[in-house]
Every structure is written in C-alpha cells, then in structure tokens.
C-alpha cells in the first residue's frame, strides 16, 4: 500500500512539475502582431476573422471576417497598417469567404454565393473586376488557392462524387501578377 502511494505521489509531483514547466515556456515572443491600438483597430475586430493568407513577401494579408454582420473579404496592408478598399468585391446579400492572394497582391481568389450557389471568383485589384470561374461547374467547390503569378487556380470540388483537386488555367494571355503594376493607395 505504501509503495502504491509513493508511486502515486511521484506521478502527481512529476505531472505538476511538467505543467509548471510547460506553462513557463509559453510566451508571445514569436508573435509580431502589434497590439490592436497600434493598428488603428483595423486588423482584428469583435467579429470572427478567419482564413488569413499572405502575399509572397508578406506585405498584404487577405482574410475573411464577419464584421458588418456578414462574411466578407478584407485586405490588410502590413506596411501601412490599414485595410485597403476592395470596390465591387463584397456583394450585398451574399457571403464572400476562403480568400487567397497572388504573390504581389494584384489578384484575389475567393468563394462567393452571389450567383445562388458557392462559386469561385477571381478579383483583379487593378481593374476592380470579379469573374466567376466555376459558374458552369456541377458540384460544390471550396478552398481556392492561386499561383503566385495569378495564372493558375486550384480548388476542391466534389463533382465526381468525392472531393478532388481541380486546376483552372486562366491562359497564356493572363496579365501576370507583377509588383510594379499595383498602385499604392
């Protein structure tokens, strides 16, 4: 009986020591997000923010948020510490979700239900135009991602009865995503 109690005491002591050691090694030293007040309260809000994706060099961060009482896409400029406007992207009466961004931030790809079902759209920040690339595709789509140059878009679709990967090629005539094309706002 004494042996079992000493093993139990040793186990509890080691468990407590492990918890204390584990908690003491938790710190925010790797986080670079400035406090909200330094960001002008624009990156995070009281609503849910999800699906963050960086541009190639980390200047832009695209994400989805429930602010304004509906799911919408937002673009944050980390150099200027502010949200950038995305005219014509977020459509009234529909949700926009699961964004991704090309290397320089010119093209955004995302899911929208503005045509009555979830479709994948590509938004060009230079022309301020959105285009659906899956409106004629049977089945559901989700989780789009765009290549750095903006030419290829990969996404998941269940049109064959199971979830598979589909790749969409925007073609050789696609205007490449180049940093010097995007004007600073």
Defining traits:
185 residues, mainly beta, Neuraminidase, 4-stranded antiparallel sheet, 12% helix, 33% strand
Task: Explain the overall architecture.
There is one protein chain. The chain is mainly β and 185 residues long. The protein has a single domain, classed as TolB, C-terminal domain (Neuraminidase), CATH 2.120.10.30. Helix content is 12%, strand content 33%. It is built from one helix and eleven strands; from the N terminus they run H-E-E-E-E-E-E-E-E-E-E-E. The chain has one helix at 2-24; strands at residues 49-54, 60-65, 72-77, 82-84, 96-101, 107-112, 119-124, 129-132, 141-146, 152-157, 164-169. The chain has a four-stranded antiparallel β-sheet, with no helix packed on it. The longest helix is centred in the N-terminal third of the chain and has 23 residues, at 2-24. The radius of gyration is 23 Å and the shape is globular. Residues 19-25 and 36-41 have low confidence and may be disordered.
Q: Could you name the CATH topology?
A: Neuraminidase
**Fraction of residues in helices?**
10-25%
Task: Give, in order, the helices and strands.
Answer: HEEEEEEEEEEE
Q: How much of the polypeptide forms β-strand, as a percent range?
A: 25-35%
Uncertain regions spanning at least 5 consecutive residues: 19-25, 36-41
> What oligomeric state is this?
single chain
Question: What count of domains describes the coordinates?
Answer: 1
CATH class: Mainly Beta
Strand order, largest beta sheet: 1-2-3-4
Mean pLDDT, to the nearest integer, reads 81
Question: Separation of termini?
Answer: 75 Å
DSSP strand tally:
11
Largest sheet: 4 strands, antiparallel
Based on CA inertia axes, which overall geometry fits? Answer: globular
Any guess at the CATH architecture?
6 Propeller
Supply the number of helical segments: 1
Which structural class do the helices and strands define?
Answer: mainly beta
User: Superfamily at the CATH H level?
Assistant: TolB, C-terminal domain
Radius of gyration: 23 Å
